[in-house]
């Protein structure tokens, strides 16, 4: 079983990202669970969402305490949230960022991947420059690093779930898939 934790802020589509990725994985033949954890429900507040996927039925019904991978939709969350809390050694951390952070120490012992989802969202006209909708670019990038689900399953899930203008969201997912940078394991200093 793979367990993924999503970190974002209210209004970024963090919960929708977990749902879309769950639906794409389901279409690809996986059993899935997707659920959010809300604190303060307001725009900009930290939000977590979770996804479990497996090739056999998932019987566990608890929160995800030790995720295999983490998706971070706002790099500034590192200042206020323990993003690596419980993350399994050598798990992937996917971050929306244009370049490697100056301080790599928080990522020591984990595998790091970056995608400039903000740029992709703005380029595809998703949201605004100050509040881009980056969720589909992030799940496209995540599909590339995990090799699950196929990008065409993500496109199908988006087309089915996004009722207004699905094409830019599909394009953002494809751009995220094509433009993710996999840096691999960050060594301890």
Description:
The protein has 189 residues and is an alpha/beta fold. It has a single domain, classed as Pyruvate-ferredoxin Oxidoreductase, domain 3 (3-Layer(aba) Sandwich), CATH 3.40.920.10. 31% of the residues lie in helices and 23% in strands. It contains five helices and seven strands. The chain has helices at 14-27, 117-123, 135-146, 151-161, 166-179; strands at 2-9, 31-38, 46-54, 69-72, 92-96, 111-115, 181-185. The protein has a seven-stranded mixed β-sheet with strand order 2-3-1-4-5-6-7, with helices on one face. A hairpin with a 7-residue loop joins strand 2 and strand 3. Helix 1 crosses helix 4 (151-161), helix 3 (135-146) crosses helix 5 and helix 4 (151-161) runs antiparallel to helix 5. The longest helix has 14 residues, at 14-27. 46% of the residues are buried.
CATH class wording: Alpha Beta
- The gross shape turns out to be globular
Gyration radius over CA: 15 Å
Task: Output the CATH homologous superfamily.
Answer: Pyruvate-ferredoxin oxidoreductase, PFOR, domain III
Proportion of residues in β-strands: 15-25%
Helix content: 25-40%
Elements, N to C (H/E): EHEEEEEHHHHE
**Under CATH, the topology is which?**
Pyruvate-ferredoxin Oxidoreductase, domain 3
Number of β-strand runs: 7
Number of domains: 1
Tell me the structural class: alpha/beta
CATH architecture: 3-Layer(aba) Sandwich
Low-confidence stretches: none
* Strand line-up of the largest beta sheet: 2-3-1-4-5-6-7
Largest sheet: 7 strands, mixed
First CA to last CA: what distance?
31 Å
Number of helices: 5
What do the pLDDT scores average to?
A: 92
